[in-house]
Amino acid sequence: MAPLLLGLLSTTPSLAWAAPVSRTITVDCHGRGDVRTVQSAVDSVPDGNRDWIKIHVMAGTYWEKVSIPKQKGYILLEGDGSSTTDISFDARAHAGIDDIMGRPNVTVDEQSPTFQSATFTVLADNFVARGIAFKNTYRAPDDQLSKENQAVAALVGGDKSAFYACEFHGFQDTLCDFQGRHYFRGCQVRGAVDFVFGFGQSIYEDCALVSDMPPGPQPGWVTAHARVAAGSPGGLVFKGGAVQAAGAAQGQGQTYLGRAWNAFAAVVFYRTRMDGVVVPQGWQAWNAAGNVWSVTFAELECTGPGSEMSRRVGWEKRLTEEEVQRFVDIRFIDDGWLSNQP
């Protein structure tokens, strides 16, 4: 089945799109813009910026690593469409990702293997991306599930970031939803191993999660959340959208919906269509083994052959209506910042 990139629906949130753009920087790899590289455009944004600046990236493949540091906020990164505009690279981490995961007091260290492998990194608050793809093309020919093969397509480490009609392509650890509040709408995330992971507090609305796990005895994992305490912020919420296979069913491995990186991991699927690629157990305890009752893994009103609940792990959460609304309501992430973006 071809990957599904779901369209933008007018459900929640209700956005005013009121914030003006102060200026536009055009990037064209063929030399017909202001600059030729995305990083050059980012570098031209003044430190401490408080006015929205649009970086318009014209169609093409931009083979570079791009980093938006925390002092360069209020950037709107806009492509000519995620099927025609992409930022790509093929770097991988040369060590595991324990450098950022599993610790209660995480500091952002741009020298960590996770950060070094990322094709695109945004650490600034107040960021928007529309109509562009982020790709890490690295895929080891052997030992594909080892930590040494972590290859991040995008790392989102600032607060108040939103992505619309974007694509994220990788194999292992595609999208690092590192920390902060984030909103994804009409996006596609493709990978095989923990392809959405981190401490983030995020809603993914009408997004396609496409498993590229090869056939074999080892299933993949869609998510790996890392909340470390009951009172800590964080959680990955998938509203609508789909979990599906990248290839034909007979040539496709299966996938878990997620595994717990830490004992208070929180992942919720709500009204999501699940193809038969999902393993019957649904979830894996991983680092929460022996303490699974502190994990919040839940599915509500999902459809499709992969949503059959009869063989799910016994510790999957049964949420009350109040608990469901706490996760799926846009106020889980938004206190007004979404309507103040351009």
Automatic annotation (TrEMBL):
GO terms for biological process: cell wall modification; pectin catabolic process. It holds the Pfam family Pectinesterase. The active site is at D194. Pathway: Glycan metabolism; pectin degradation; 2-dehydro-3-deoxy-D-gluconate from pectin: step 1/5. The keyword Glycoprotein applies. It comes from the Eukaryota. Residues 1-18 form the signal peptide. Keywords: Aspartyl esterase, Glycoprotein, Hydrolase, Signal. It catalyses: [(1->4)-alpha-D-galacturonosyl methyl ester](n) + n H2O = [(1->4)-alpha-D-galacturonosyl](n) + n methanol + n H(+). Residues 25-334 form the Pectinesterase catalytic domain. Its EC number is 3.1.1.11. GO terms for molecular function: pectinesterase activity. Acts in the modification of cell walls via demethylesterification of cell wall pectin. Belongs to the pectinesterase family. PANTHER family: ACYL-COA THIOESTER HYDROLASE YBHC-RELATED, OS07G0655600 PROTEIN. This is Pectinesterase.
